[in-house]
Write a structure and sequence with these properties.
Keywords: DNA-binding, Transcription, Transcription regulation. Residues 12-79 form the HTH gntR-type domain. InterPro entries: Bact_HTH_transcr_reg (IPR050679), Chorismate_lyase_/UTRA_dom_sf (IPR028978), Tscrpt_reg_HTH_GntR (IPR000524), UTRA (IPR011663), WH-like_DNA-bd_sf (IPR036388), WH_DNA-bd_sf (IPR036390). The structure is a single chain. This protein has helices at 14-27, 39-46, 50-62, 93-99, 118-124, 163-169, 172-180, 198-204, and strands at residues 66-69, 73-76, 82-84, 104-114, 132-141, 144-153, 184-195, 211-221, 226-235, 239-241. The protein is an alpha+beta fold. It folds into two domains: 14-76, Winged helix-like DNA-binding domain superfamily/Winged helix DNA-binding domain (Arc Repressor Mutant, subunit A); 82-241, Chorismate lyase, CATH 3.40.1410.10. α1 packs across α3 (50-62). The longest helix is centred in the N-terminal third of the chain and has 14 residues, at 14-27. The protein starts with 13 loop residues before the first helix and ends in a 6-residue tail after the last strand.
Length: 247
């Protein structure tokens, strides 16, 4: 009799289904962090061959949901973990989270046309009185706040998306591409650690003074024009950023 937890007709690989089931249990706190997840236990539970079990555990380990303790087994790491590969295209974090089955949600607030601070104006090369589209986005994963982003976008004056449009699309740059044909070519990032302010603590559900990861990004269009700036504050223990350098 087929295992009721798996859908053999869905076309989704078995290892991916098993991984998603275990990930949700770990992130939701249903998995006991003191109890190892053994291959034998999972083989009995899912009634599949060993290969999809091993692949699921391998990917969960790579993404920080489980860790292997020598001679003890594989143990869950409670809480949501987000692993962002280096090849996620600029402005597409939300889509990446959705595609990997993490069920992201975003809340956009404070939409306005505003002159950016001098430091941001300098990074984008804008004029002294040039008004940019400005808003704040809070991204949550599995109903847990993950990222709070402050965003300035250099866009045509008639680009005036609503909060609902920005939340549904997940990226203002995707809307710019759809409506004006403006595409991104690359992004430059700076990252550093900081301590949560009272405002960050309230937005991300952490204690004031907790460690946070800040990633500041400048986005460039295909023609090399600076198109936007974003400062994204992440829960440090829940976000893993992978990058590649070449000589």
């Amino acid at each position: 009799m087929p295992n009721s937890e798996l859908d053999l007709s869905s076309g989704v690989p078995l290892y991916r289904q098993i991984k998603d089931i275990l990930r949700k249990e770990i992130a939701g706190g249903a998995a006991d962090p003191q109890r190892p997840m053994t291959e034998e236990q999972l083989l009995s539970r899912f009634e599949v061959s060993r290969a999809p079990i091993r692949q699921a555990l391998k990917e969960l380990a790579n993404e920080g949901y489980v860790y292997r303790k020598q001679g003890k087994g594989t143990f869950p790491v409670p809480g949501t973990r987000v692993h962002r590969p280096a090849d996620v295209r600029p402005g597409a974090l939300y889509q990446y989270l959705y595609d990997t089955g993490l069920h992201p949600a975003s809340t956009v607030s404070g939409i306005e046309r505003a002159e950016p601070p001098a430091r941001i104006r300098h990074r984008l090369g804008t004029g002294a009185h040039e008004r940019l589209l400005h808003f704040t986005r809070l991204i949550s994963v599995e109903n847990e706040p993950l990222v709070e982003a402050d965003v300035y976008i250099r866009a045509p004056e008639d680009f005036a998306p609503t909060a609902a449009e920005l939340e549904d699309e997940g990226s203002a740059f995707e809307l710019l591409k759809r409506d004006f044909g403006i595409t991104l070519d690359r992004a430059e990032h700076e990252a550093w650690a900081t301590a949560a302010t009272a405002a960050h603590a309230a937005a991300l559900g952490v204690r004031e003074g907790s460690p946070l990861l800040v990633i500041e990004t400048v986005f460039f269009t295909t023609g090399g024009l600076p198109a936007g700036w974003r400062s994204a504050v992440h829960q440090a223990e829940q976000f893993k950023y992978r990058f590649v350098t070449s000589g």
